[in-house]
Amino acid sequence: MNTALWVARRYFFSGKEKKFINILSIIAMLGVAVGTAALVIVLSAFNGLEALVRKLDQRFDPEIKVVAAQGKTFEVSPAFLKPLQQIQGVQVITEVIEDNALLRYREAQVVVRVKGVSDNFQQQHRIDSAMVAGEPLLKRGNISYAIVGAGIQQALGVALHNQLDVMQFWYPKNKKNIAINPADAFNKKSILASGVFQISSQYDEKYVFVPLEFAEMLMQHGQKRTALEIKTTENADIQEVKETIKQQLGDKFKVLDSDEQHASFLRVMKIERLFTFAALLFILVIASFNIFVSLSMLAIEKRRDVGIFYALGADEAFIQRVFIAEGGLIAGIGTAVGLSGGLALCLLQQHFGFVSMGMTSAVVEAYPVQVHWVDFVVTGLCVILFTIAATYSPAKRAAHAKIIL
C-alpha cells in the first residue's frame, strides 16, 4: 500500500478515540454522500419525466409532421402527394385540418381543438391503445363520428352513440361582413361521439378527432390542409426519411420529427434540469468546504506527526500527498455511499413506485425515474474536481507548517 495513503487511512479510521476532528471528517463525508445521492436521484427523475413526455407525445403525435413554413395552411392535391408517397420509408401520409372551434353539447359548451384526419389515419394506430371507452371509429358508411378526449367527455357529459343528443361544432365563417344575428356568423355541424381516448390532460381536455371531410366543410378550407402526418415503415431511418422529404418539398415547408414538434417544451425541461443540477452542485461545494475545514484542523492537530515525518526523511511532497489522500478518502467514501444510495433509491422507485405522482392517471401512477450511467460519470467527475480544489490548500499549508517535536 502507498505510504501516504496508509497514513491517511490511519488518520481517518482512528479507532482509539473519536475526537472532534474525526466527527468533522464524518460530517464532511456525509455531506458529500447526500449531495451525490441528491444529484443522482434528481437527474434520474428528470430522465424519467423526459422519457414519459416523449412516450405520451409519441402516442399522439406522428413520427414526421409537415407544416407550412409561413402561414397556417397549404394546398394539397394528388399531384402534390404522389412524390412523397414514393419516397422509400414512407408508409402512410395522413392529411390534417386542425383548428379551434366551439363545441356545444346539451346545455354545456367548451372550446376544443378539432383535428380532421383523412381515412388512412386508422392505419397509423396512434390512439388505439389510448381508448378507454367506445371504439376508434370516425366513419361508418356515410355517417361521421368523433373521438373525444376523456377530459372533454367528462366536462360535457358526452354519451357515446347517443342519437338524441349530438355534439355541435361552431366555427367562424370566412366573411368580412358582420351578421346582424351573431349565430349567423358561424358554421355549425353536428356529429355523434363513438369513442373516448385518454393520454394526458394536455390532449384529453383539448382534442376531438373527426373525419377530414367533416372538418373541411366546418372550416371551409377546401383543398387546404394545416399539416401532413407521416408514418414510416417498420425498419426505416426516420431522420433519413425526414431529410429526403425536406429536399423534396424545399424551403416552403417545415419537416419536423417527434422532438422538433415539442422543441420549446423539451428546451424548457433541459433548462430546468441545468438549473437544478447547478443548485445541487452548490451542495457539493458546501460539502467540499467541510473537507477544507476538516483538513485544515487535521493539519493543526498533526503538526507533531509532520515533524516526525520530516525527521525520518520525508519531504514536502509526501506531506501533501498524505493530506490529499485524507481528503480523497473522505470524498471517495462519500461519493461511493451517495452513488450507491442514489442508485438503490432509484431502482426501488422503478420496481415498487413508493413515490406517487399525486394524481390518478391511466398512464402512470408512480413518479418515473430512469438511471443513466452518464449521470454517474458526471457526478463523480464533479466530486473529484471539487475535492482536488478543497484539499490542495490545506495540504500545502500542512507541508509548510511550523514543525513541533
UniProtKB/TrEMBL annotation:
Alphabetically ordered keywords of this record: Cell membrane, Lipoprotein, Membrane, Transmembrane, Transmembrane helix
GO cellular component, one term: plasma membrane protein complex
Superkingdom as given in the UniProt entry: Bacteria
All copies of domain ABC3 transporter permease C-terminal, residue ranges: 278-401
Subcellular location: Cell membrane
TM helices/strands, residue ranges: 20-46, 274-300, 329-352, 372-392
Family: Belongs to the ABC-4 integral membrane protein family. LolC/E subfamily.
Protein name per the record: Lipoprotein-releasing system permease protein
Lineage: Bacteria, Pseudomonadati, Bacteroidota, Cytophagia, Cytophagales
